[in-house]
Amino acid sequence: MRRITIKDLSKFLSLSTSTISRALLHDKNVNEETRKKVLDAAEKLGYKPNLTALNLQSGQSRTIGFVVPEMITPFSSTVLKGIQNILYPLGYRIIITQSDEDPLIERKNLQLMEEFNVDAIIINLCHETQNNDIYQKIMDNGTPLIFFDRIPHKSLDVSKVIIDDSIKASLMVEYLIKTKRKKIVHIMGPSTIRNAVERVNGYKRILMKYNIFDENLVVQTDGMTFEHGKKAVKQLLNKNIEFDSIFAFSDTLAMGAMNFLLEQKVRIPEEVAIASFSGTELSTMVYPQLTSVQQPLEKMGEAAAELALEKIKNNMLPSRSILMDAELVYRAST
């Protein structure tokens, strides 16, 4: 069956092709009656728009890039839901890529977004400094970049949606201290991302305040999977380092640690309390349920989408930072 074109609509309605095009693009210069007539005819005849052609006329692709380290856990997918809440009703499409925590793959994903001529890119980076040059190049070329959760080095002027990682980490660690825990492990995320450093700084500050900081209880990881959490605890046990609680950089690290301890017949929280940072749905899908700093992920996505729309409308607007609150949710693991 032959594809219905704008010319077919033009002939059917006795309107010019330019009027048809503008109506399909929701041009404000086309009156509502004509626009409705065009859309009704398009539906009746089975017209499917040639999006590339329409985008060339409008100067926009009506697509947004979404670049994240992973889509395995609910973290990125929940942020994406917030982005969709804002952008889908406006007719935008979203192109999703994941970097697998690899800066080289992230770089290729960003170049792919440029090839697709996206109107903006919303990104959660995988390394604080390694791709700063391409971030700057993309912005210099006129495509807005909006960062959330993990942000680039402060030398880059960018719009971003963030949490006060240091303060929230401090509050969670202080909560553990108030539950009579004194030997608190921190399973740290990779030091190449800023919020890992911010969270360990918050952890250290509170322990030093109570004069119970022990550097042997900070375990550095080079990844954030369940297996990395398991390895971190295994390392402590192999060194016979005593601890009564764990504060992990992420839910996945905390769950990997908790599962391994349970395999070793360690009682949680009686012998070891466990808390994390992220607050994804995963924290309620384990037993015992996980105490966590719960970030407003869907609202973060909505805020990032709003920042993207601002920049699409006027890329000369100054960059904005949106600081969102996070809630400490206490569950059975502590």
UniProtKB/TrEMBL annotation:
Record keywords: DNA-binding, Transcription, Transcription regulation
MF (Gene Ontology): DNA-binding transcription factor activity; transcription cis-regulatory region binding
CDD domains: HTH_LacI, PBP1_LacI_sugar_binding-like
Occurrences of domain HTH lacI-type (ranges): 4-58
Name of this chain's protein: LacI family transcriptional regulator
Source organism: Chryseobacterium phosphatilyticum
